[in-house]
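User: I'm curious whether this sequence folds into something compact or stays loose and floppy. Could you predict its structure so I can see for myself?
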Amino acid sequence: MLLCAVPILWAAVSDYRKRIIPDWTWIAVLLIGGVSASLFNTPYIPLLERILGLLLPGVTLLLLAVKYGGVGGGDIKLTAAMGFCFGLCGLAAILFFALLPAWIYAKATKQKSVPLAVFLCVGFCVYAGLSLFS
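Assistant: Here's the prediction. I'll summarize afterward.
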């Protein structure tokens, strides 16, 4: 899990500064998830949950982006990669800790588009911290 911290943090910094998420960040998260699924055979995240974590949020965000806009392609790819790496339940927890601060930030700054990777990073940090202490 902690191997994902570097690419997620880099994505957050890049999204905050330039409003772009480098492709290598979500690819690294996806590869780390794939390696952990195949080599370490992590029993707490079944392969089906990883696949659902990849597909459901990715397709949902893609549909939202097409219909309403405001969600960038990098956000979709990073969220889908995190869904595969942490599974659907892990991604749900990350989004729980990410989306409320993102909504508050959007309302406070009166922006329609927020650097979502920043808040995904916050959600990841809270999720990782809670996972270490449980």
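Summary: The chain has one domain: 2-132. Helices lie at 5-18, 23-38, 47-68, 73-109, 116-132.
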